Amino acid sequence: MQLYVLDYGLFQVHENGRIIGIPGFLIVAGDRVVLVDTGFPARYAADPDGAARADGLDAFGRVVSLSAENLPAAQLARAGFAPSDVTHLVLTHTHIDHVGGIGAFPGATIVVGRAERALERPLYWEGGTGPEWPEATYLEVERDTQLAPGIKLLSTPGHSPGHLSLLVRLPRTGPLLLTGDAINRPDELEDRAFRGAWDPLKARASAERLMQLASSLGASVIFGHDPEQWPKLRKAPEYYD
Prior knowledge:
Layout: E1 2-13, E2 19-29, E3 32-36, H1 43-46, H2 48-55, E4 61-65, H3 72-78, E5 88-90, H4 96-99, E6 109-113, H5 114-117, E7 138-141, E8 145-148, E9 151-155, E10 164-170, E11 174-180, H6 187-191, H7 200-217, E12 220-223
Parallel strand pairs: 3-5, 5-6, 6-7, 11-12
Antiparallel strand pairs: 1-2, 1-4, 2-3, 8-9, 9-10, 10-11
């Protein structure tokens, strides 16, 4: 069993100047090849400023670094896989930097929170119109669910209506908690504000639950967009096992 961290580029938030990594994950568990999130739409690699203006994202921040090498197909190739190998595409949620490649894996089952799937379209970004839900087999999750041996989906609503986090149990690394945007960085827990969340109260409850779980299991934690943690993570083709 192996977990690869995928590098979908860098983004800077105007409000605080924070430069954040856009992560994805590839989890290989037996015959399951599980991709977690897909980064920005491919057109952001060709013209990031133009794409951000079209989506209204330029009011929030700017793409610092994103090329074709940061798109899912190239990142999968670094781990020795192709899009056609992906059996399951897990969407932690459907904001623009997580759902950009949603239609690029026609052979995969799309795993998404039920409350998220109930939306007419993916959330995307408030300034732009997101893609339609692609024709696919869907697994809609509304409670903690075992996806495969060693891979558990955790229902963590708040940042978005149907946000999912993952608990991955690796043979050598041990339990590893992927919080997604349920906890972007540790200081979110300190100020307890969860500004910008769909439901701040639910977001706080989900974040506290995740950290309690990590503490009880002795799990390592990979946060959603932590500027300090991001450079220290092993990136594909390196992996955690």
